[in-house]
Amino acid sequence: MSSPLTARDLIDRLSAVDPDTPVRLAINPLFPLQHGIADVIAVKDALGRVTVYLTENGEQQGPVPPEVTVAVGWHEPTEAPRRARSAIAAQ
Asked: What is the pLDDT of residues 38-49, one digit of tens each?
């Protein structure tokens, strides 16, 4: 299991893209959908450790693009099957 993404990691990764680029959450590897982000909330647990939450805005934005699901390792790269021309279509 990889270590959790830190705020520093997130800032570093986001600083590499145009600041006006939309940001989405990719949720559920088995049925990947993208969601808009509403807010960033930092809270302390009972031991005083801070965790940052990216909250979802309740708007499902549609399926996650295949290149994203492949990049994060949720799915294997696939190609659409070739369609055979039928005898009827050839007439």
From this structure: 999 999 999 999
